[in-house]
Amino acid sequence: MQPDQLKEMMRHVGIEHRMSRCVSLSGGSIHDVRRIDFDDHHSLVVKIAAGRQGACQLKSEMSGLQALSSKVTESLTVPEVIGFHESDEMSLLFMEHLDSGQHDEDGWKAFGKSLAGFHESIDADRYGFDHDNFIGSTPQKNDWNDDWVDFNRVCRLGPQVELASSAGHLSATHRSLFERLIRRLGDWLPKSPKPSLLHGDLWSGNVLMLEGNRTAIIDPACSIGDAWADIAMMQLFGGIPNCCMEAYATARTDDSSFPSDRVAIYQLYHVLNHVNLFGRSYLAQAVAIAESVLSR
Fold first, then answer.
1. I need a labelling partner for 120 at 20 to 30 A (CA). Which of 48, 104, 170, 196 fits?
2. Which candidate in 37, 88, 104, 201 is catalytic?
């Protein structure tokens, strides 16, 4: 996108500041992500997506950020949504730019404690969300359900297995293994855990440490569900230290003991999604998780 085009898009959302430069940011594997600097020394982040699918993805991210923003605290925040513009060719999501700070132990402990409070901050009695969204670029169903076990069958593991099978990633044996686990989900998942507002894709790359032991979480895939689902993703690919997890468990007031079976099942969802996003290189990990859970 040329600077004049970007300036025109900014005017559509009421941004009249004079742009001094625009630089690409890392982490934009799905969309074009840029930081816009202005002459008055403040900055914004813009995500640029092409096509109808891209527009739907940015709208879902915007809705997720707005949902999370209703529960932010002094120590845990999200980027403020500045504006959204959609044209026939592309869509743009403008957000607050946050300067990252140091990832030290005190900061991670503060994040764990804040996240525990965040997870206990809503009063809900069912699972899902008010719209479907995306986990990465994969569509994520969020149909409301009173039963957490059934929600995970219908909206989480079931669609991932079906998508992977349709894409030719699963043998008949693999599909049978995952379907056997799905049929038995009630052996490991509670029917009615305390509902929490979930970030939904809380790996280390979506956690920004700010100054003053403050934390921001970005790129959400929100839903209402079991809080341990966020912890499962935090643990899956590393990068978040044990002190954060320990602070989280200590600060929880509800079922603070680590539910290993539940966490493994929630991790399986994300690993299957990686099979669908990146191919069979993640299949062995998904099979190992399923076999381990089924053996317990």
1. 104
2. 201
Structural domains of the chain, ranges and CATH numbers in brackets: 3-96 (3.30.200.20), 105-294 (3.90.1200.10)
| Helices assigned H by DSSP within the chain | 3-12, 51-69, 105-119, 148-151, 158-166, 172-183, 228-236, 242-251, 260-278, 283-294
Q: pLDDT per position in the chain (296 positions), as tens?
A: 777 888 888 888 999 888 899 998 876 568 899 999 999 889 999 999 999 999 999 999 999 999 999 998 889 999 999 999 998 889 999 999 998 887 789 999 999 999 999 999 999 999 999 999 999 999 999 999 999 999 999 999 999 999 999 999 999 999 999 999 999 999 999 999 999 999 999 999 999 999 888 999 999 999 999 999 999 999 999 999 999 999 999 998 876 678 899 999 999 999 999 999 999 999 999 999 999 999 98
